Amino acid sequence: MPKYLLLLHEKPDAASHYSPQQMQDLIQEYVDWSERMAQAGRYLAGQKLVEGEGRIVRQDGKGLVVDGPFSETKEVIGGFFMIEADDYDQAVEFSRDCPHVRYGTRVEIREIDEHHREE
Amino acid sequence: MAEKFGDDRTRDMVDHLFRREAGRMAATLTRILGPGQLDLVEDIVQDALVQALRVWPYRGLPDNPRAWLIRVARNRALDRLRRSSTLRGKADDLKKWISQSSGEPGRPRESRFAEELSDDQLAMIFICCHPELPPASRVALTLKTVCGFSVPEIARALLSAQPTVAQRLVRAKRMIKRKNLPFQVPPPAALNQRLDSVLEAVYLLFNEGYAAHSGEELVRRDLTGEALRLISLLSAHPLTSKPQVHALAALLHLHASRLPAREEDGQIVLLADQDRSRWDQRLIEIGSRHLRQAMRARALSRYHLQAAIAACHLAAPSYDQTDWRKILGLYDALIEIQPSPVFRLNRAVALAFVDGVESGLKALQGIEDDPALRDYYLLPATLADLQRRAGRPGRAAGFYRRALKCPCSGPERRFLEDKLEQVEAQSSHAIQEDQP
Predict the structure, then answer these.
(1) Residue among B268, B254, B278 at smallest CA distance from B219
(2) Which of A11, A18, A31, A50 to mutate to test the interface with B (most CBs of B within 10 A)?
(3) Mean pLDDT across chain B, nearest whole number?
């Protein structure tokens, strides 16, 4: 079955003004979502990325450029989930329920290319 | 990496876990870092909770969420100490924190239901309710620091603007720092007096939730719930298990027992019309138990008398069978302790049942112009009800209109409008009212 990576974009300081109750409620929503995915046999993995540490390496006209670590206000990928879905439509359906859609800035869905399809 | 979801681990956190832990962690951190560092304490607690929000969605709930939060908070605190020369000496105390709490590995997980007030939390309550702080600040600071509410949540609960609440908190914290208020349970000689200001804050907290005079909600259960929780914890702690504490615990539980019958479809149901079978028997039992414990007192507090009045209402099989004579006597005693115009208003209601409506109206003449009651809709509403019962619907309508000019909640407003409509209909049939 096709595997999808859900890249969770967010503002790193988004939660700093949440109340304890809001944070607890939100965590519960994530846990419930992951649990529903696991019960349906669709949950594969989830990992958080270390905050504020990322680097970007690229080449420009003069040579190698390294950017980062990034300021707290920039939108970053905070983590990812890996799930299984029949197709993109279903992956979208699953992500619609994910609390990150409301809490974060957006969820980017990418299919993992496992078969090196050569068409 | 092991599969974390889909196995048989606990999936749900204890209700209000984060609020409770915020309060508990803040108390211990305040003991260690000092009450002058409340801002730092709040930052550390918030950081620990935010960290949980960042990690738990991916890893699932830890086996012992409390221990996890304490560990993170302790590490954050140690980080902050390294950057501060004045606080560096506190590191040893911080390191002891984990072994003192139930977060110690190998110890059985704390019961989900039993909750005890730690000495740190008790000291925290005393400092938040210190008589040096203005009463409104005490309530706000208790909600923030002991109960784990955010500023917007406090503002919503107390129907104040957020900047007002924020300012009250800033001032209270500044005052604690400037006056160097100690973080301790007061010594026995001062305990009773200091307890008074704690009880006053808890009473205020309950009342804010019980008698909301604006907004759409008649009762804000968040607040009544916190007040019940605090008074239960205080009455269970050996240092504060005093008669007046049990008296307030009795009063609040007995009042809360009537809440299920007090509202129907967003409409107020008056005591006279309440379905008494909907009163919460469990709360009545707890309240009565507290009342018995309260009676070991040498002197009765206002809370004793108020609880006795509530118990009297609850003991009546119907409104008509209420022992108004006994209630009148209790109000007389209460007014001797505290001559509040609100108690005098309630006394007049009891008097109207004992001696007749005209006596009740006469008793109200003395307080009709009391400035403390100027915006209190229950004064004109009571006058209206007595006038109606005296057969003067025209005058009653006038008082209902006056009541509608006072601040009140949506359900209260609808209640008054209904009553007004009823007496207006009556007065159009009435021939002439025999009253100037």
Answers:
(1) B268
(2) A31
(3) 88
